[in-house]
From TrEMBL:
Protein name: FAD-binding domain-containing protein
Keywords: FAD, Flavoprotein
Pfam families for this protein: FAD_binding_3 (PF01494)
The keyword Coiled coil belongs to this UniProt entry's keyword annotation: no
Organism placement in taxonomy: Bacteria, Bacillati, Actinomycetota, Actinomycetes, Kitasatosporales
Domain FAD-binding: start-end pairs: 2-337
Organism: Streptomyces rubradiris (Streptomyces achromogenes subsp. rubradiris)
InterPro entries: FAD-bd, FAD/NAD-bd_sf, RIFMO-like
SUPFAM superfamilies per record: FAD/NAD(P)-binding domain
Keyword Flavoprotein in record: yes
Cofactor: FAD
Length: 458
């Protein structure tokens, strides 16, 4: 096969979708017997909504989710007042999605899995990877049942304790963000409205929150507990916490679907590529959950990597194109790690800084700016939405192809002009929605397009 993806989380499933629509033979293997059952990564940032639009799942994601409710702080059984969770970010024609969307991670994965299956993709559950070895032609992956699989490339999307990363000997550098113990759980609770994210403060820096999960009857419980605390991860344990921190009694918690304890930490893999093996998602970077950056950064890893694997395997691009995955995504992950830590520590507000619309690749070797005095949009920037002759750009961008604005080149989908918001020039838009090349004319464009595998008609 072409690509073996280890891990059926949001990263692996999103990558599987992108490869399936490119005609790349890929298989996703997952150690568990089914999809992840919890709500952990419940926030879908606006930039990830654009990615989901491109992958053809945004309508389902939006239908299954909803907006974040305002937070409501309680003290001694009395509400003190509500406030928005996020500073507002104004929408315009170029940025149609500016509000984070709440949807429990298990539902996001169900939608991605359904889309992957519809495209002919496959997930093999109950397949645990134990090791691998690679050569100049491919990678052999060993499984716990004694069998092995062979692929030209392997992508590790198997989480923060990645077996593949450890088998490669790649280190991960990070820090403890918070020494306290944290607990997250999906519970059923009576006695609270579903219009607010309910916050209850305890002694010192401890506290408990209950957030109604959009599209479900559940609440997500989040608790910050004293350092060294190890609460019982059972229904009775959750009932005790709710009774201790809130005005509700223990019997108000009527059910427990999923629970997990953790200590917030960061981690950044020393390398994102070792030969024919690439690291993505939590296998490459681990975030504090504050600000909803982890799942989103991970899905965008998949968005960045998918078109590059497709270009190498199907578009005639040189294998060195894959080096730009580490070049672009490791730098991005490092920046987002700093952001999520700052949000956790209360140094940065949720809003414009966390929607991820400003992330880009201006310093990348793939970003070629040929204009002498570029104004506004530049190579490496996110390509905004807009309209050309009544046609919406995001509708034109959707799919595995490149798009040329302002000129026409054989083998590349083209529109005769770009919106005024882009400024003057000719713009070649990458499949992941960033400006790859910009020039005053098409001079030099064909050479660039050949180098990145863009000259393949959809």
């Amino acid at each position: 096969m072409d690509v073996l993806i280890v891990g059926a989380g949001p990263t692996g499933l999103a990558l599987g979708i992108d490869l399936a629509r490119r005609g790349v033979d890929a298989l996703v293997v997952e150690r568990a017997d089914g999809l992840f059952p919890g709500s952990r990564g419940k926030g879908v940032q606006p930039r990830t909504q654009e990615v989901f639009d491109d992958l053809g799942v945004l309508a389902e994601i939006r239908a299954a989710g909803g907006p974040y409710p305002p937070r409501l702080v309680w003290r001694d059984g009395e509400p003190l007042g509500a406030a928005p969770m996020f500073d507002p970010v104004p929408a315009d024609e170029g940025t149609p999605y500016t509000e984070p969307l709440m949807i429990p991670q298990w539902r996001t994965q169900e939608i991605l899995h359904a889309r992957l299956t519809a495209l002919g993709g496959r997930v093999a559950f109950g397949h645990e990877v134990t090791g691998l070895r690679q050569d100049t032609e491919g990678v052999t992956v060993d499984l716990a049942d004694g069998t092995a699989l062979r692929a030209a490339y392997v992508v590790a999307a198997d989480g923060g304790r990645s077996t593949v990363r450890r088998a490669l000997g790649v280190g991960m550098t990070g820090e403890t963000v918070d020494p306290a113990s944290f607990l997250v759980a999906d519970v059923q609770v009576k006695g609270l409205d579903r219009d607010h994210w309910h916050m209850f403060r305890g002694a010192g820096e401890t506290g408990l929150a209950l957030c109604p999960l959009a599209g479900t009857d559940d609440f997500q419980l989040q608790a910050r507990l004293p350092e060294g605390t190890a609460p019982e991860q059972t229904l009775d344990g959750v009932r005790s916490l709710v009774a201790a921190f809130t005005h509700l009694d223990a019997d108000s918690v009527t059910g427990l679907r999923w629970i997990s304890g953790f200590r917030p930490r960061t981690g950044l893999a020393d390398r994102f590529r070792v030969g024919r093996v690439l690291l993505a998602g939590d296998a490459a970077h681990v975030h504090s959950p504050a600000g909803g950056q982890g799942l989103n950064t991970s899905v965008q890893d998949a968005c960045n990597l998918g078109w590059k694997l497709g270009a190498v395997l199907r578009g005639g691009a040189p294998e060195t194109l894959l080096d730009t995955y580490e070049e672009e995504r490791r730098a991005t992950a490092a920046g987002v790690l700093g952001l999520s830590t700052a949000v956790h520590r209360g140094q940065v507000r949720r809003g414009a800084a966390t929607v991820q619309l400003g992330l880009g690749y201006r310093e990348s070797s793939l970003s070629v700016e040929r204009r002498t005095a570029p104004a506004g949009l530049r190579a490496g920037d996110r390509a905004p939405d807009g309209r050309v002759a009544g046609t919406r750009l995001f509708d034109v961008f959707r799919g595995p192809h490149w798009t040329l604005l302002g000129a026409s080149v054989p083998g590349v989908r083209s529109l005769p002009s770009a919106p005024e918001s882009y400024g003057p020039g000719v713009f070649l838009i990458r499949p992941d929605g960033y400006v790859g090349w910009a020039g005053e004319t098409t001079g030099g464009l064909t050479e660039y397009a050949s180098r990145v595998g863009a000259l393949t008609a959809p």
